[in-house]
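Lecture notes, unit on protein representations.

Consider one protein chain, 46 amino acids long.
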Amino acid sequence: MNIPKQKRNLTIAGTDIDEVKRLNSQSGLSYNEVKRLLAESLNKKE
């Protein structure tokens, strides 16, 4: 992303928080989401 440096939301270590959030949103299901889907599918079979 080409956001000017002064407008970036950075941690003390220099990590771009907004970039991390963007990448996380594209990564797929979280561990808890998978657990919930599995539990729902098992409950439907019973």
